[in-house]
Amino acid sequence: MTNIPSGFSPHARKSPVTDPWQPLYARTDQGVYELGFILDTCHCNGRGLLHGGVIAALADNAMGLSLGIARLKTDPGEAGKAQAVSGIVTTSLQVDYVERAQIGQWISIVPRVVTASRRTGLTDALIYADNTLIARAHASFKVLISETDT
Question: What is the pTM for the complete model shown?
Answer without folding.
Answer: 0.88
